[in-house]
Backbone:
């Protein structure tokens, strides 16, 4: 078992990575002592992994909430449903929630845990590549609002992340590709070597090779844990993890959270961030072409149909990085070198949107 | 102007206390620089003080949400309404919320501020004695659930508390008495001198004498600020501030938040906590009688009609101090000496409930 720690003082926690962890009672016995647990999952994941997880939880009181699958269900109403179940079962402040699923289940469960009795423990058991490399780590919890992605939420760290890499064997190819967008993102932000590794090993990843997947999960978690450890509340550096996300979130909310997987929208957002960085003269044409080529090889969308540039720009205006009425963006000086800036020419953004959306 | 600080490192903030502060633009200019502000108030307070507050806010963008008055409206649905308005107006992470009202408005506004974009600034402008001495200070935010009081919430500190003591001139007598319950609570927890002062000066307080009111506001805030500074997240000592509240919250939720003011329920809860402490042999009969006498002189209920002992006990079971399935209670070793314990005879609790409820 591979173990990484997210170092946050009294809020530190381990990320455990291995094949078959969901079926190991010792893992949950050791790291999650709560007597009462509420497992939140969705209609896709629960039939696959909930029985094994429940068996591993042993003889405690375990209650389940199964949500419909998909980003459109990451709503305040569904978080309220989780809270209703906690209260109906008279769970105390010493209970724990467990999120078994992808980013939607993880974000929503974490937000419910943050709000219940002003904060109770929760564990992430991510079952998609995207959640394993990104959303399950770092304590950003949220639900969506029709007006904008993740606008209602809390910083609330899990007490444990259990990444069972065997779950990737059942992950649909579309979901695997979506997860790769976040891995490519880490390379672009701060790790040119990872980006180069991805260029060399993408076919193995797309074929689901366990060793290759374990490598990118481990490296992604290392990068994210280090950044979160230095800037838990996104006062500075953590904003870099939003590379591609300002574009991506706007696509998701403009389409009612119904058409794009989050990782797909991030993939398109990375293409736009690279193109705009090139447009602003920050990045070479060669590097921008490498970004685009890797995203295309990964099967990620790099062009948007059926959303107008104006609609995307409108939805970008509610991004959490707006400051003093000015939208800040994460751009690239090169592969492995991202930075946050409000200092870009508005026409460059307009041209980027016009070139990618129609 | 009297200024106290709540010392919480980077989350420290001032409590400003004086007559007429709502009408002073310099106070808000200096302490609340946000360009966009959302003021939340209720149908009772807004007609009295919102115009003066808005004038003091100067030439910024100011939006208002006016909620119906009363504990029954401290709901997740109304917090969601505040969030909807923030998003509809495209407020950024650098906005601020202002709670103008009593504890209901303050708790709900603080919770909305905690959840919006994972946390934005908010200021408390408490207009009831209860909010000025207690709920506006310390960063406990929450909404009620039909199943239990304050079960959905967050720890989220305000950036500023503006206590305009002139607002007490318009406070109904019933609300003034409710606020006194929390002041009596502070004396009982840790300040026998304050309790004695209240015995000597209660008539002045009930008559609304400004100097007497200013004294108890100041002293209450001092006590609360010190305890919160030592134990922000209620790992230990802060639980003492819940003296009387486990009983009180159960009364409120058992009656659908419609019949009791929070302070009235706390008053009845203090009477029960003292009686139970006497029942357990912790407190002398003389001291228990002094507690009861002061509560009665303050016009607070010390006996409950139309709620059965069984109903109160049932609702106490969802209290946030339940640990390992066991209800912990704050009891008294004497006036000025409260402690938290799970070690009490269950029959003593049953006898206390039977003696006070019918």
Residues:
């Amino acid at each position: 078992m591979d173990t990484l720690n997210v170092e946050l003082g009294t809020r530190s926690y381990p990320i455990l990575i291995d094949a078959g962890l969901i079926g190991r009672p010792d893992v949950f016995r050791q790291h999650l002592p709560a007597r009462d647990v509420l497992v939140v999952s969705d209609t896709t994941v629960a039939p696959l992994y909930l029985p094994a997880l429940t068996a591993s939880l042993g003889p405690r009181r375990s209650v389940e909430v199964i949500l419909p699958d998909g980003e459109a269900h990451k709503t305040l109403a569904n978080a309220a449903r989780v809270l209703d179940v906690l209260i109906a079962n008279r769970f105390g402040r010493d209970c724990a929630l467990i999120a078994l699923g992808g980013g939607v289940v993880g974000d929503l469960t974490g937000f419910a845990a943050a709000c219940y009795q002003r904060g109770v423990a929760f564990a992430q058991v991510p079952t998609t590549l995207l959640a394993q490399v990104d959303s399950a780590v770092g304590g950003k919890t949220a639900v969506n609002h029709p007006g904008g992605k993740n606008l209602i939420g809390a910083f609330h760290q899990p007490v444990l992340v259990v990444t069972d890499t065997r779950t990737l064997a059942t992950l649909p190819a579309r979901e695997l590709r979506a997860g790769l967008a976040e891995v490519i993102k880490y390379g672009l932000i701060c790790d040119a070597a990872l980006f180069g590794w991805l260029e060399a090993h993408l076919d193995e990843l797309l074929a689901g090779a366990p060793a290759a997947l374990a490598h990118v999960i481990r490296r992604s978690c290392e990068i994210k844990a280090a950044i979160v450890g230095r800037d838990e509340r996104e006062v500075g550096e953590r904003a870099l993890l939003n590379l591609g996300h300002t574009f991506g979130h706007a696509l998701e909310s403009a389409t009612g959270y119904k058409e794009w997987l989050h990782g797909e929208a991030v993939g398109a957002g990375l293409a736009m961030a690279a193109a705009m960085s090139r447009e602003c003269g920050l990045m070479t044409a060669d590097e921008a072409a490498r970004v685009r080529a890797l995203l295309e090889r990964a099967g990620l969308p790099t062009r948007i149909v059926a959303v107008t540039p104006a609609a995307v720009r409108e939805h970008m205006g509610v991004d959490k990085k707006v400051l003093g009425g000015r939208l800040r963006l994460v751009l690239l000086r090169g592969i492995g070198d991202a930075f946050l800036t409000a200092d870009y020419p508005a026409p460059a953004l307009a041209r980027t949107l016009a070139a990618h959306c129609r």
